[in-house]
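Continuing from the previous page of notes. For each protein in this section, the sequence appears first, followed by its structure tokens. Read the first protein now.
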Amino acid sequence: MSDIGHRLHRLLLHIVLMTICIVTVFPLVWMVSAAFTPNDMIMAKAVRLWPENPTLSNFTIAASRHPIWMWLWNSMLTATLITVGKLVLAIPAGFAFGRLEFKGKQALFWFVIATMSFPNVLAIIPTYIAVVKLQAFNTYGAMIIPSIPYIGFYVFYMRQAFRSLPASIFEAARMDGSGLWRQFFEIGVPNVIPAIAALSVISFMGAWNIYLWGQLVLDDAFKKTLTTGIAVFADLEGAERAWGPLMATSLLSVVPVLLIFLLAQRFIVDALAPGIDDR
């Protein structure tokens, strides 16, 4: 009976997981199907997982009515620069907290950790006022610079990555006459590439999906990102007659992030593997 009960439990677990998977994936599959289905046929027939007559007309219509390719470029630019900015600050900070000793280290580290407990939305109003006073409204800088300082988690993650490296390699480097920066660039960074890649994906996805802040500081149609542009697209076109172009634009917003995740998947697994082995 125990064996039968165990099998029944596993069967029910698999059924629940499959149901959750289907519910989660179905909207994405329908979005892909609708993106390649003629706009007038999307609501005319039952929901299909693959279009009967695939077409690129929705992409053409979307591009003719709105600067979606400019939105795509803006998203790539802002997400890339935000990611680079976060890493440039977080990697040296993580190295300092993980491998160096200096006065006030613990207090400063706990202050960085404490910043993770404050929701980002609390800083929206004062940051917006600062952007307006600096006359940076409707600029890429207004979108990029305020998003970079939120690096509490990144600093913590890089600290853990550098702490996991054996101290002997740094001691050997010091005995060979290597300075601090050489230890950082030639020993530290090359050995935490998986962690950097994992953080890059996390940062890029977060920056790519910035919506509220983009809606506040980007009013120019040619400065908007795909995330904010899709909202404008939906408002201008109307939900009933714009599903095709809207889904085509939404697909454009998903593909780059998905590709980056797939390309960096090996590094992410390598970054998580030590934690899995420790179990």
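Done with the first. The second protein uses the same format. Note its length before scrolling.
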Amino acid sequence: MRMARDEPELERDAQRYSTQPLPPYRYLPGLHPHPQANPHGHSYGADDEPHPPWQPGEWRTLDGWRHGVDLCNAHYYWESHEAWEALWHAVPRRTTPHRFLQGLIKVSAALLKVRLAMLTQKDIAGAQSLAPAGLELLASVGHERLMGLALGEHIAALRAYFGPLEHDELPDICASPLILLDD
């Protein structure tokens, strides 16, 4: 099993927003032990307490949000999805923060599909459906800035990044846009 330290091509000089450590490996379905279900998984036995309700204005102290950003920026796409999903479940449906997180979760899933396609499957259909769905949700938020993220700029960077998918080509996973927060 490839550990994160064995993937220097994925190392980035990105600002960290949380103090939580990064897991020892970037989970890839079919290639690694499932992080939560497998006793050898990096998050096996971790606390699954539901996240308490929260407000977008709390983003500076919302560790699940900030850790999810760190995970996504470091190519831990499945893990970022999980971090944000806990927050997503804690807000009312069809609200701005709900759509915002759902969009980021879909984008993270699309990035995971790109990574998998580069390594094994060569099937980009998942990324081709998830990326536009995530971008549409993010655009529907209707805010230029939310939870420290310049959303318009980030959406534009993601659209450019995912552009090759429209021509059945894979974007370079190492060039995926960073999530940059006002800190």
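What the second structure shows: The domain at 60-173 is CATH 1.10.3450.10 (Hyaluronidase domain-like). The chain is about 45% helix and 0% strand. We return to this in next week's lecture.
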